[in-house]
Description:
Blueprint: H1 14-52, H2 64-92, H3 112-160
Amino acid sequence: MATIARDDQxxxxxxxxxxxxxxxxxxxxxxxxxxxxxxxxxxxxxxLLAGRVTDLATLAGADVWMRYAAGVLTAIAIxxxxxxxxxxxxxxxxxxxxxxxxxxxxxxxxxxxxLVEVLSRIAIAKHLRVRRSLNCLxxxxxxxxxxxxxxxxxxxxxHAG
Length: 161
């Protein structure tokens, strides 16, 4: 059975190292797919928020606390969407400065273990940034839902009464 060797040795089986590198590259592509999907959600959220900003005029006659709450929720939503966009853009940037002696098609000196380590660091960094962007997106979505409720509930109560 082939095993990956310790730090001072080459891998016992170069094919195992190549298969491991290919698996890590698949996880990098998976992270890139997540980035594309989440980016479309962020852009949709920004378009929805931009369309709803015109409803701030409906709050002109509302209480001061409602106008203040709408402003705070809008600021939180904008910050959440901006944070999500920042982390997604940062995840797209390749981390090739840590690649060391690897070339375009593989390691320059045949050290496949180094290639796997570099690709693993890239994959972990991408997935970490995707997770952070999701946290920002959740904050933005919660603020936008709160904003919708702030507009809808008083309108419903005025029609019911």
